[in-house]
Amino acid sequence: MESKENHNPNIKKDDISKSIETKLSNEEHILYLKNLYNIQNEKLENSKEYSRFSFYWDLYGKKYFLKRLLRKVLRVAYGWFIIPLIEHQNSFNKSVIEVLETNKLISEETNKSIRNLDDDNNEQMIALQDLENNLKLVSEEFAIYKQENDDRHKQLKEAVFHQRLSMEHYQRHVVPEYRVQLEDKQTKIISIAREQDLNKMNEIDSSNLEFLQNDNLDKINENYRNYIEKTISNSNKNGGLIVIIIKSFRQEYGMEAIRNETYDLYQLLKKESVYKVKLISLEKQKTPSNYDESIMYIMENKLSDCIETLSPNLLILCASAAHILFEYYSVFFKYHTLVRLTAQNPFQGLNNESIEELRHANDFGVHHYIVSSKRALGIMESEGFRDVLLQYPIINTERIDVKNFKKRTNEVFTLGFASSPMSEEQYEDRGVGLLSRVIEKIPEVQFKILWRNVNLPVPAILTSLSNCQIYIGKYDMVKFYTEIDSIIIPYKTIDYNHACPLSAAEALINGIPVICTENSGISEILNSYGMGVVCEPTIESLVAGILNLRTNYQLYLNEASVNLVRTLFNSNKVIGVVEDIAENYVSDNFVTLRQWDDYLKIKGKYLVKGHDAIKQYYQNEEIAEKYNEERFLQFPFNYFDAFERTSIDIAFESYMKEHIKILDIACGDGRIVQENLKYGSCTAVDSSQAMLNIVKNRYGHNNVKTQICDFFIDSIEDKFDVITTFRYIRHYDYAQRKSIYHKIWNTLNDEGMLVFDAPNIRYAMKERNGDNWGYYNIYDVFWTEETIKKELSDNNFILYYLIPIGLSSIDEEPVSWTVIAIKK
């Protein structure tokens, strides 16, 4: 009977709604709903049990009684049992529907309550999702990092296997510190001066016996002593010298990021490089040195004389932006220079003419660049600069005592700002005004500001805010990091700002989160590793970011991310890069574009550089008619011409194809076309109709097609097996060469071949010494074997053959190469 009572649960929707509307706490409410749900389920199960009993009773009755008796019994039972059973079943079905509807209502109310709870924790859920995304990014970055290391390991194994990697190269790039340990144990052998060396040294004629008199012997002995001493000096540390140059080191070290990083670089190279290292500080006033015997403090106007005396293998110039290269009478264009730029905009304040001069020096291998962010790298590459290296700030972790770092727990959330402007023009770009308004908006957050320049006034609004502490001048940075919860970088623009502020970098490797605007290069690291918040450069965005960071602070304290971030500031690769650059310098007689043009003006000419100027120059019919005569008929250029055409034959014979479709770009008077026609059909294109007329007259009856076409800007619809182009690629700087390579790649068939000429920089720079630049009015660039291979690889080609052309009397170097490359 109890089970029958359960078949008709007496539960009404109004009663449920009324019970749910009672003012209970969220937890009591959910508990009540769960209990009610369980009661209804129990009643439903009892109803199902009764139904199963009715079914089996009916089944057994049909199976074991006689049919006749069964019919009578059924007739009686129909009235007594079946009808009541049907009614009971209908009642049961109705009760089940009511229970299901009740449970549905309970479920909806429960879900509604859970959703309300979810809404209350929405910010935490978003923060957790952000953390998951950041961890995913970290995993991806780690996978890339692992792949790069695997690739390096593979290359190293291959190089050792093929004996292409010398021990010196291995030590330089893998274990530079090992060389310093071995240095004292290695025997230094002094090379013997040859007779011709002594003769040249003493300016004497060895055939004249008068040189043996005492006066001359004394002179010879003195010169010989100098020779031995110089040789011994040069044998130490590979005989090389690296000079690091920085402005105002004495006054600003310990306060300004560039000086701090420069000193860390100096200490690193001094400790682990085989080169001798000196640090030169350019001072406005003469000051004695008391830091280190290798640090030289000199007046700015003495820089040129000092460098000439030292005669270094490499200068390392540390500055914010590239404009410093034009200071000090442009002395840095005379010497091999590695420029360490820390600005987010490396070309801040420079016009197009100045950038073109810098690109020219970079293309000739005189200037090399290291920048501190991907954005700065992108700016330089978009301007056509080659081989720019991305290296985040070099940090001596011992200087900031990472191992002994202990974080203080602040009662009030505290942000630090250590990127204060060094001049008034930097106020807005550094975000000082923006920061002031942010501090004013959130009085519950404390700010600690390090104002570096003691001569620069602090804005009145900052001094008036009660939640802002300002410290002027030098400050113990280890102490500073123990007093803050986060670093803020509120840069408003990319101008006048560091790409990767040193204070932010040091904070990250100490596990301190950073909040910055998207204009700072540090934002790249935060987006990848999730150790802070990136905001728009607005008051609202920064305030929201700060409050979010404070609320979810623990989410940004991830030891795994800290360990990965520390690898970004690893300085191991810097030593190998610096020494490679110091070792491979060949542009001794380099001239700027202005100097080159000045040499030409003396001879009544001018420098023809750039696409438009070159195109206009070759439109002249007189130049077209004399093109071959002036370049290839006189000795030794007629020999070089023959060698080049022979090398083209070798290129085609190695291609191993018949009926080749060939394109000759900038065909000129058809000098290369005559070789191409031996191996297939040739399309000759040039922007000069005068040049094409000559080609038609010479080869028009053969299998050649001429087309007026400026390959730099015009489209060629057809595809070719081989593209030849001589005296063309060499006339353009790297920004334009990249465009040409890209277009050639798209015009070649798969497995297509590119053949062009590349002048040898070792020959060209010595041959053009001094006034000789005045004989060359068309802009040219030059290569080494290494730079050809690197440039082709960077532009999706593989160097196939490098055929030397001519053998000069200068160091037995080829005059140029015929380059044969295939598509990647």
UniProtKB/TrEMBL annotation:
Pfam families with a match to the protein in the record: Glycos_transf_1, Methyltransf_25
Keywords: Coiled coil, Transferase
Protein name: Glycosyltransferase involved in cell wall bisynthesis
Coiled-coil region: 114-148
SUPFAM superfamilies per UniProt: S-adenosyl-L-methionine-dependent methyltransferases, UDP-Glycosyltransferase/glycogen phosphorylase
Domain Methyltransferase: residue ranges: 662-752
Glycosyl transferase family domain span: 474-553
Domain of life: Bacteria
InterPro entries: Glyco_trans_1, Methyltransf_25, SAM-dependent_MTases_sf
Protein species of origin: Anaerocolumna jejuensis DSM 15929
Organismal lineage: Bacteria, Bacillati, Bacillota, Clostridia, Lachnospirales
Any GO MF annotation of the entry: glycosyltransferase activity
